[in-house]
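Below is a filled-in request sheet from our internal design queue. Each sheet records the structural input a requester submitted and the sequence that came back. We keep these sheets so that new team members can see what a complete request looks like end to end.

REQUESTER: design group, bay 2
PRIORITY: normal
MODE: inverse folding
CHAIN LENGTH: 97
BACKBONE (tokenized):
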């Protein structure tokens, strides 16, 4: 993370504010990147967004498969029901947005 932030700072995409000890306290978009219309910043955001979204949807699907509190009995799940449930969570998410 530190190397990535330093690289983005060296490319003048972000400005890093540091305290007296050199620790990063704030991250902001650089003025030169704002003037350029956020071209590089938007590129990086669009580049990583599918991975962030896939991770989030996977986590939500797994949460949907957890048994309710106090569940007694078999812990096995039917594959077809799991797939249907995961797809339903994904479709519900997209229809909400």
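RETURNED SEQUENCE:
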């Amino acid at each position: 993370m530190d190397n990535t932030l330093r690289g983005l700072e060296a490319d003048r995409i972000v400005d890093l504010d540091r305290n007296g000890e050199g620790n990063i306290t704030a991250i902001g978009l650089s003025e030169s990147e704002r003037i350029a219309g956020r071209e590089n910043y938007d590129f990086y955001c669009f580049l990583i967004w599918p991975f962030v979204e896939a991770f989030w949807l996977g986590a939500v699907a797994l949460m949907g498969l957890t048994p309710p509190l106090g569940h007694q009995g078999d812990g096995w799940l039917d594959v077809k029901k799991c797939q249907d449930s995961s797809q339903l969570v994904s479709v519900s998410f997209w229809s909400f947005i």
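SHEET NOTES:
- The radius of gyration is 21 Å.
- The first strand starts at residue 14 and ends at 18.
FILED BY: M.R.
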